[in-house]
C-alpha cells in the first residue's frame, strides 16, 4: 500500500524501517493486545486523527494500532531531531500513512508539517508537547469546533494545556496521558533515565564513573536519570526549586545545591525540568573547562542557547551531536544535540518495553475521549483509573508476574468504617 500524501526523506529506507518496527513490536505485547481488539471492534472507524509525535519505531507501533482501529491518520514529528527517517519511510510506503517528518528539518519545514497534519481537519488531536493544540488555538481556530478531543503525552505539553484551561481558552477535552501512573512512573523514570544516559554516552563516549553529574529537576524524569547516573558510578548533584522534591532527593542520598553552586563543580549537566533558562549565562561563566551540558526536557529552552553562543567567539562541531563552544579565556563547554532532547536526538529514545505502556495508554485514551465525546468538559482530564489498571494487568500478564487479589472480607473491611481497631 502506498500514498503520495507525504513528505519524508528517502523512500528507499523503508525496508530498514520495517525491520526496526518489527523488532520494537516484539517488546510491546500490551499494545499488541489493544491492536488485536481494535482490529475486531474498529472503535476509531472513519475518525480523522492528526498526530504530532516522535517518529520512532515505537511510535510506529502506536500508529499501526490506531490504523487497525479504523483511524484516518496524518503523522508529523514533534521534534525536528527525533525523526527516524527509515521508520517514516516504512509507515508511508508499507502502511499507507500520511507522514510529514524529516530528520533535521528546519523550523519552517517543521511548522509546515504541523499545518499539513491540521489540514486533515482532525476530529482527534494527539500531541507530544502540545504544538498542534497551540496552533489550533492560535492560527487555526476554525478547527476547534470540529475536534472532539485530544491526548497529550508529555509533562511540558500538559503544563501548556492546563495553562490554556486556566485561561478559559481550551476548546476541547484533552486526556493527560502523561499523568497516567503506567506512563509517568515507568516511561518518565525508567525510559528517560536509561535513554538519556544512552544519548549522553553516544554523543561523548565519556566515562561516568567518578564524574560529577548534575541533574536539574527531580520530577519523575530527574529521579530516573539521577538513579542511573549514580548506578554508573557518578557523583550526582540535584538542583530543584520545589522544596518537597529537594527533600526527596536529599533522602534518596543525593546532594542538593542551587545551580549557581553546582555550576562550578559539575562535569556533566542535564536539564529535565520543563522550564526555560535553567542553565544560563552566569552558570556558563562558572563552569570548568570541558563541562558537558545536555537537555532531556521536551523543548530546547531549558538551556539558554543564545547566552552560550554569545559568550563563545569560537564554535565548532567535533562529533555528531556534540558542539564545542570556546570562551574568550579558552575554557571549552560542550553542548549535546543542539540543546534538544538528547535521548532522541543523540540516541533512539525510550526502549520499546516501556513505550508499550505509554502507547497502550495513548490508544485507550483516544478511544475513551472519542466515546465520551461532548460529555467531557473542555479541560485537561486524567485517564480513568480502570484503564490505567487494565494496562498494568496486561503488562504483568505479559511478564508472567502473578499478584494477589483482595478477598471479599478484605474489600468489605477497606470499604467500611465500623470495625475500628
Automatic annotation (TrEMBL):
Signal peptide residue numbers: none
Principal location class: cytoplasm
HAMAP family named in the record: AdoHcyase (MF_00563)
SUPFAM superfamilies assigned to the protein according to its UniProt record, in alphabetical order: Formate/glycerate dehydrogenase catalytic domain-like, NAD(P)-binding Rossmann-fold domains
Cofactor note: Binds 1 NAD(+) per subunit.
Compartments where found: Cytoplasm
Matches recorded under PANTHER family: ADENOSYLHOMOCYSTEINASE
Residues that coordinate or bind NAD(+): 188, 217-222, 240, 275, 296-298, 343
Name of the gene: ahcY
Classification via CDD domains: SAHH
Keywords, sorted A to Z: Cytoplasm, Hydrolase, NAD, One-carbon metabolism
Pfam families in alphabetical order: AdoHcyase, AdoHcyase_NAD
InterPro entries the UniProt entry points to: Adenosylhomocyst_ase-like_sf, Adenosylhomocysteinase-like, Ado_hCys_hydrolase_NAD-bd, NAD(P)-bd_dom_sf, S-Ado-L-homoCys_hydrolase_CS
Catalytic activity: S-adenosyl-L-homocysteine + H2O = L-homocysteine + adenosine
Name the UniProt record assigns to this protein: Adenosylhomocysteinase
Leading EC class: hydrolase
Family: Belongs to the adenosylhomocysteinase family.
Amino acid at each position: 500500500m502506498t500514498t503520495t500524501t507525504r513528505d519524508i526523506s528517502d523512500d528507499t529506507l523503508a525496508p530498514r524501517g520495517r525491520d526496526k518496527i518489527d523488532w520494537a513490536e516484539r517488546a510491546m505485547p500490551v499494545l499488541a493486545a489493544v491492536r488485536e481488539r481494535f482490529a475486531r471492534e474498529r472503535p476509531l472507524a472513519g475518525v480523522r486523527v492528526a498526530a504530532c509525535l516522535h517518529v520512532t519505531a515505537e511510535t510506529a507501533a502506536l500508529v499501526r494500532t490506531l490504523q487497525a482501529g479504523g483511524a484516518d491518520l496524518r503523522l508529523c514529528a514533534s521534534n525536528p531531531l527525533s525523526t527516524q527517517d527509515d521508520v517514516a519511510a516504512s509507515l508511508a510506503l508499507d502502511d499507507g500513512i500520511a507522514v510529514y517528518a524529516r530528520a533535521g528539518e528546519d523550523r519552517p519545514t517543521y511548522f509546515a508539517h504541523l499545518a499539513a497534519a491540521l489540514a486533515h481537519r482532525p476530529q482527534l488531536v494527539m500531541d507530544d508537547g502540545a504544538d498542534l493544540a497551540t496552533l489550533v488555538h492560535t492560527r487555526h481556530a476554525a478547527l476547534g469546533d470540529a475536534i472532539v478531543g485530544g491526548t497529550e503525552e508529555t509533562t511540558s505539553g500538559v503544563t501548556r494545556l492546563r495553562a490554556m484551561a486556566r485561561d478559559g481558552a481550551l476548546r476541547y477535552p484533552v486526556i493527560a496521558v502523561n499523568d497516567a501512573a503506567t506512563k509517568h512512573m515507568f516511561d518518565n523514570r525508567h525510559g528517560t533515565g536509561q535513554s538519556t544516559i544512552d544519548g549522553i554516552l553516544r554523543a561523548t563516549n565519556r566515562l561516568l564513573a567518578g564524574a560529577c553529574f548534575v541533574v536539574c529537576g527531580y520530577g519523575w524524569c530527574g529521579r530516573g536519570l539521577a538513579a542511573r547516573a549514580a548506578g554508573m558510578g557518578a557523583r550526582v548533584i540535584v538542583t530543584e526549586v520545589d522544596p518537597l522534591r529537594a527533600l526527596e532527593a536529599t533522602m534518596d542520598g543525593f546532594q542538593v545545591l542551587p545551580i549557581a553552586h553546582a555550576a562550578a563543580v559539575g562535569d556533566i549537566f542535564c536539564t529535565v525540568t520543563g522550564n526555560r533558562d535553567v542553565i544560563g549565562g552566569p552558570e556558563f561563566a562558572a563552569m570548568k573547562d570541558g563541562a558537558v551540558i545536555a537537555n532531556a526536557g521536551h523543548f530546547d529552552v531549558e538551556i539558554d542557547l543564545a547566552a552560550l553562543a554569545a559568550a563563545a567567539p569560537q564554535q565548532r562541531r567535533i562529533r555528531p551531536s556534540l558542539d564545542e563552544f570556546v570562551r574568550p579565556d579558552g575554557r571549552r563547554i560542550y553542548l549535546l544535540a543542539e540543546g534538544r532532547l538528547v535521548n532522541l536526538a543523540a540516541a533512539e529514545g525510550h526502549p520499546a518495553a516501556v513505550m508499550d505502556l505509554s502507547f497502550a495508554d495513548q490508544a485507550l485514551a483516544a478511544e475513551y475521549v472519542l466515546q465520551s465525546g461532548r460529555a467531557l468538559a473542555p479541560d485537561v482530564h486524567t485517564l480513568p483509573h480502570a484503564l490505567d489498571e487494565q494496562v498494568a494487568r496486561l503488562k504483568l500478564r505479559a511478564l508472567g508476574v502473578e499478584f494477589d487479589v483482595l478477598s471479599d472480607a478484605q474489600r468489605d473491611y477497606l470499604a467500611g468504617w465500623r470495625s475500628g481497631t
